[in-house]
Fold this sequence. Notes:
The protein is of the alpha/beta class. The protein has two domains: 28-248, Zn peptidases (Aminopeptidase, 3-Layer(aba) Sandwich); 263-329, CATH 2.40.50.630. 19% of the residues lie in helices and 23% in strands. The chain has six helices and 14 strands. It has helices spanning 64-74, 91-94, 129-143, 167-176, 220-236, 242-248; strands at 40-44, 51-56, 83-88, 146-153, 160-162, 181-184, 208-216, 258-267, 274-275, 284-285, 291-295, 298-301, 307-310, 321-329. An eleven-stranded mixed beta sheet has the order 1-3-2-4-7-5-6-8-14-13-10, sandwiched between helices. Strands 9-11-12 form a three-stranded antiparallel beta sheet, with no helix packed on it. Helix 1 (64-74) links the parallel strand 2 (51-56) and strand 3. It is globular and about 60 Å long.
Amino acid sequence: MTGSLAEPATDVPAIDVPTLELAPVDITPWCRGNTDIDYVTTFDSGRPGPHLMINALAHGNEISGAHALKFLFEAEARPVHGKLTLSFANVAAYEVFDAAAPQASRYLDEDFNRLWGPDFGGGATARSRERARALAMLPVVREVDHLLDLHSMGNDGPPLLVSGPLTKSRVLAEALAYPGIIVIDDGHPSGVRLRDFGAWADPDRVRTAALVECGQHWRRSSVVVAIQTCVRFLAHFAAVPADFVAEHLAPGTPALQRVVEVSELVWVRHPAFRFVSDFAGLEVIAHRGTLIAYDGDEPVRTPHDDCVLVMPSVDLTPGVTAVRFGRFVA
């Protein structure tokens, strides 16, 4: 990877992290791309069809997505109709990844994945390095029909497809049939995700988007999940040759999917937020009113019986989402 004068965010708290099984991969061979936007490459089949996009590195420390895109480039994934765009988003944060403080390179100035409100791009100025990068990518983003956004998690929980509240998004998640847990949520109070930008958030438009949390940030298994989700995404839209899918899709039938509907979101208000136990995610708390955390001195309790803890965060900075409460639904 090339060097950078950028510095990572300094307000991210130190946390205990699992042993790093992954290191960043060199993505500089795809710096120039072919779109006049660094690290964004579009393959055009020359035939009518949807424009698909697979995006990695919305957060600079979520490196399994970079491994997955490297695989797609080297395996020569090419569309047989429509277009396929492969993009590395927050490259500047990725370039300062430090194994001694791996959480610190999530972003440099502000979260790239909280910028995408309905008015983003309308006269917006680059007040941060993340915002400048998002504005640079915007011309391609606006053209895309269907998005797969590759992410990972701080905790060692199972991988998830985060579909959002729209029926069309849930239909896409069910069609991918992998990973085995679909989370239906409304997003974060701190800002709008790329997945929920523009036509992807419009129930009357056919354009769809899915966000996959591939597992813990630095587990080798998260790369496997990322690659398999990419292959399934491409196969769902018949975007690549059948022999590419046959060669790279793992054998076996996926487990039956389960759906978690988020009922309530807990966000951090005080610097002293702390969980009462080391939750990894998808724990089912049997009884309403069970204590699971303290936000400063204020207890945080489950709001209903059979409450599912969705993606408890290791970053407990004020303003971020600490955990989502949910229910398994039919």
